[in-house]
Amino acid sequence: MTRPRSTTHLPMMLAIVFALIVCIFATPSIAQDSSSDKAAKPDLICHTSNPDECYPRVFQPTDEFQTVHNDQELPNGLHVRLNIWTGQKEAKINVPGETDPSLEGLPIDQAVVVVDPEQQPDAPKIPRGAPEYEPVGKVKGPEHESVHFYEGLKMLKSGVTKNDKAFDDALEGLEDLSHDLYYGLKVAEDSDAIKALLCLMSDQRAATDGAIPRDQQAAAILAGAMQNNPTALKEVVKVWPQLVDSKCPNTGESLRQSIYSSVIPARNGHGTDDQQAAARVKSKVAVINGLIKDSIIRAEFLKDGGMASLLRVLMPEGKAWAGAQRKAGQLVLDNFMDEDMGAVLGQWPTIPRLSDEQCRTRESETAEGCWDYHVGRIMKASKAGKGDWSRELNNRLASVRKEQSKRRAHEEL
Fold first, then answer.
1. Which of 256, 255, 254, 258 is nearest to 268 (CA)?
2. Which contacts (CB < 8 Å, 24+ apart) does range 201-204 have?
3. How does it assemble (predicted)?
4. Residue 385: helix, strand or coil by DSSP?
5. Domain coordinates in residue numbering, the chain
6. How far apart (Å, rounded) are the C-alpha atoms in residues 123 and 127?
């Protein structure tokens, strides 16, 4: 006789089934939490065993510019800048309408797009005697060249005519086109045009009433031609020895005498119209900044008293001179103090700092040892914060002076 199945097993079975269902549905949640924790950990790139040298695979932007490593991924919408001389890339959070102070006064060609070359670790070695690689490449010309550009060059080389307005219009047209890589190179290839522009830039009487001063306009053309255009600079360098020893028809001075002194505020109307005078000086500082990217011209600039003339830009007081002084300070940082910007350290400064009392005297105010004094004065007057050119230059000068002091003490032992 079969015994009837006990009904006490039914609740137990239902409990087991319910527990299994709970486990099945709980498992994805646990897995998701685990994967979320894993995703929260930063994806790092490490080239060495030192964890301090690791950095995120995806660039983490802040409100200040930071170096972007070649193997980092850049999110969209950032403010990215590239130093064409060193290849260093920096990025920060983009702020609409914000301008980069280091670019103030310089024309910006927004048609240039920089593309990073792919990494090729297994590329073959360059054989000895192979021609030097030219990273710039050939500058492609426009489909239809501008007739007005060549007419403007012809008028520039012939000098000011009776129709002064036509000459001023020609300069304005040349300035607009000089920002283009092709036309900037065409200006640089014409040695007579370069001489005419440098002479016009150096002529302190070149100002005109009601229009942009011609010396400022000439400087803007030169700066536009050489900015981010190493090929154009090379063309100028080819004829530089002949250029600097030639005399300008309007001044009777050689360009060697007048190019660097052209930035002195007193030669640009300081004390009469400081706003205009500062604008003229700033445009000329931009030209010198482009020229001394070449090592030969940079050595001449140091030898021929260029730094003394540049230091005079820091001497005027007043807000009108802030832009010109920032341009001068940035020139010193980029070319002599900051290796990341292509500077060769040790070229300047080479003599010890002078005392503040000495730097307040007329005899020593433009001495090499007085840069610290004038930069420090501007830094204090403007209450410069972190990232300001005057504070950065002040700190780097202090560091150089400290090293110079250690070196002298070592030599005396």
1. 258
2. 201/259, 201/262, 201/284, 201/287, 202/248, 202/251, 202/253, 202/255, 202/258, 202/259, 202/261, 202/262, 203/248, 203/250, 203/251, 204/262, 204/267, 204/268
3. Interacts with KAR2.
4. coil
5. 44-92, 147-343, 351-412
6. 12
In terms of Cβ atoms closer than 10 Å to its own Cβ (0-12, 13-18, 19+), residue 213 is buried
DSSP 196-243: HHHHHHH-TT---SSS--HHHHHHHHHHHHHTT-HHHHHHHHHTHHHH
Cα separation, 155 vs 51, in Å, equals: 63
| Residues present in the chain in total | 413
Q: Which one, of 287, 283, 292, 269, lies nearest residue 323 by Cα?
A: 283
Collapse the DSSP code of 33 into the 3-class scheme (helix H, G, I; strand E, B; otherwise coil) and give the result: helix
What is the number of alpha carbons within 13 Å of residue 261 lying toward its C-beta?
14
- Return d(Cα 63, Cα 263) in angstroms, integer: 34
AA identity, residue 55: Y
- DSSP letters, 251-285, are T--BHHHHTGGGG-GGGGTTTT-HHHHHHHHHHHH
Tens-of-pLDDT digits for all 413 residues of the chain? 444 444 445 455 555 545 444 444 444 444 444 444 444 445 888 888 777 788 888 888 887 888 888 888 888 878 888 766 566 788 888 876 666 555 555 444 444 444 444 444 444 555 555 555 455 556 778 888 899 999 999 999 998 665 688 899 999 999 999 999 999 999 999 999 999 999 999 987 765 655 789 999 999 999 999 988 999 999 999 999 999 999 998 888 899 989 999 999 999 999 889 999 999 999 999 999 999 999 999 999 999 999 999 999 999 999 999 999 999 999 999 999 999 888 989 999 999 999 999 999 999 999 999 999 999 999 999 999 988 999 999 999 999 999 988 888 877 76
Q: What is the DSSP letter of 161?
A: -
Q: Looking at domain 147-343, which CATH architecture does it have?
A: Alpha Horseshoe (1.25)
Q: What are the φ and ψ backbone dihedral angles of 81, each rounded to 5 degrees?
A: -130, 155
Reduce the DSSP state of residue 297 to 3 states and report it. Answer: helix
Nearest to 104 by CA among 337, 278, 315: 278
pTM of the model: 0.68
